[in-house]
Amino acid sequence: MTIRVAIHGAAGRMGQRLVALGAADEAVELVAALDNAGAPNAGCDAGELAGAGTIGVPISADWPEACDAVIDFSVPDATDSLVEECVRRRFPLVYATTGIEAEQLQRIEAAAASIPIVKAASMSTAVNLTMKLAEIAGRTLKDLPSGVDVEILERHHRFKEDSPSGTALAFGKILADAMDKPKAAHGREGRVGARPADEIGYHAIRTGDNPGEHTIVFGMLGETIELRVAATNRDCYAQGAYTAAKWIKGKPPGLYDMQDVLGLK
Ligand SMILES: NC(=O)C1=CN([C@@H]2O[C@H](COP(=O)(O)OP(=O)(O)OC[C@H]3O[C@@H](n4cnc5c(N)ncnc54)[C@H](OP(=O)(O)O)[C@@H]3O)[C@@H](O)[C@H]2O)C=CC1
Ligand SMILES: O=C(O)C1=N[C@H](C(=O)O)C[C@H](O)C1
Fold this sequence. Notes:
Blueprint: E1 3-8, H1 13-23, E2 28-34, H2 46-49, E3 59-60, E4 69-72, H3 79-89, E5 93-95, H4 102-111, E6 116-119, H5 125-141, E7 149-156, H6 166-179, E8 183-186, E9 199-206, E10 213-219, E11 224-230, H7 235-248, E12 254-256, H8 258-261
Parallel strand pairs: 1-2, 1-4, 2-3, 4-5, 5-6, 6-12, 7-9, 8-9
Antiparallel strand pairs: 7-10, 10-11
Bound molecules: NADPH dihydro-nicotinamide-adenine-dinucleotide phosphate and the ligand O=C(O)C1=N[C@H](C(=O)O)C[C@H](O)C1.
Domain Dihydrodipicolinate reductase N-terminal: 3-123
Protein name: 4-hydroxy-tetrahydrodipicolinate reductase
EC number: 1.17.1.8
């Protein structure tokens, strides 16, 4: 079975990997490579831009007539128009952009009343499995007499604009809920005092071309557990997005995540 896919943000770092992997997948037909109207690469063949050879699909702002899934890796500012187009055309959406505002999230949630949407801060199977492991660790360690300090360390490339990463925040939410730790500390500086027990610490490192790395530290008195998941390139996210696009075809309207797609709930 072939699915017709439009990539939104097709000229970007992730968009190019999606074009390259989609062009090589017999089960995928790329029907549009969408990017912003003034994109410097507008009109270029998306496959050539991605280093995958000519595929006959230009980088453009023109939406396709028909499509089984739109995969979005773009920018927060594009969210409203993206969601409006998907709802108007009844196109299912795989939404991967991070760093959005609360109002943009509300619009996505409202749109999920009329179309199916998979939204996840990380499309990687390994990251989503690590989230499950973190939840089990959090629930198991919650009432340990010595107390457990949770610190979330993430590393990403120097071009990343949002901090901490969407994935770090997703890990944080899972652990805040599982361990009843509602406070967040983003880095520490100066005489901040002893560490509160109900705080989760976030540390965002920006360096070189790192495609994404997360370490969850569970610090106890006398023992430490670290869960670490690290990408060596972007294909784990792109492959996960295609898994979601194949899964979403024919699903009823609703807001789903990668835990639904991967059967981890
Ligand atoms: N959920 C996940 O698994 C992952 C999520 N991400 C997230 O995906 C997003 C994109 O990452 P990345 O590819 O590195 O970023 P890039 O900046 O390389 O790519 C974003 C692309 O979106 C384009 N764009 C800007 N405005 C619009 C618009 N109105 N319509 C369509 N396209 C537009 C940009 O064009 P221009 O440059 O001309 O502005 C650019 O080509 C980020 O939020 C990142 O955090 C990244 C990896 C994994
Ligand atoms: O910008 C990136 O590169 C990534 N962003 C996502 C995030 O913010 O969690 C996912 C991945 O870590 C790569």
